[in-house]
Write a structure and sequence with these properties.
By secondary structure, the protein is an alpha+beta fold. The protein has one domain: Aspartate Aminotransferase, domain 1. 32% of the residues lie in helices and 22% in strands. It is built from five helices and seven strands; from the N terminus they run ααββββββααβα. The strands form two sheets. The chain has a five-stranded antiparallel β-sheet with strand order 1-2-5-6-7. Strand 5 and strand 6 form a beta hairpin.
Length: 148
């Protein structure tokens, strides 16, 4: 299994430079997505928790696979960030588990904007039950791998 320690910090730093007024529907969408992570929050470390950026990470130790391999601590589980036109929901288990991605619900596929990132524009368009189920499946995958 290939594990890469990746963070959304680069996106966040760029966004900080271009701070503008955030539309109300994006703030509501952000709050809803962060609320969906509430049941699993206690098993992870919050690396970012601001009104515009939220990240959950594990504390397990792993060896990176690179030319300068070394032991690292932590792997991202999920992140939520507000951008100018949408709210991004990064869900790292999709990147690590091909089975999760292959079995992705058809209601979630239109929102997928990359390997493990979803873009939502309003809270009404979020398929809540499917996304909650995906979070549960990702949590059980991390538990099976003994990362939490």
């Amino acid at each position: 299994m290939r594990i890469i320690k990746a963070a959304t910090n680069a996106h966040f730093q760029k966004q900080k430079r271009n701070v503008k007024a955030i539309p109300l529907n994006l703030e509501e969408t952000y709050a809803l997505l962060v609320g969906l992570l509430e049941p699993v929050k206690s098993s992870f470390e919050e690396k970012a928790n601001s009104p515009h950026h939220y990240e959950l990470w594990t504390n397990h130790v792993f060896r990176s696979k690179s030319q300068l391999a070394r032991y690292r601590k932590g792997c991202m589980f999920a992140a939520v960030m507000i951008f100018s036109r949408y709210v991004s929901f990064y869900f790292y288990p999709l990147y690590l588990n091909k089975e999760l991605k292959d079995n992705l619900n058809t209601n979630l596929k239109p929102f997928l904007a990359g390997e493990s990132c979803f873009h939502f524009k309003s809270p009404e368009t979020i398929p809540l039950t499917e996304l909650s189920k995906l979070i549960e499946d990702g949590f059980s995958f991390y538990k099976d791998q003994q990362w939490i």
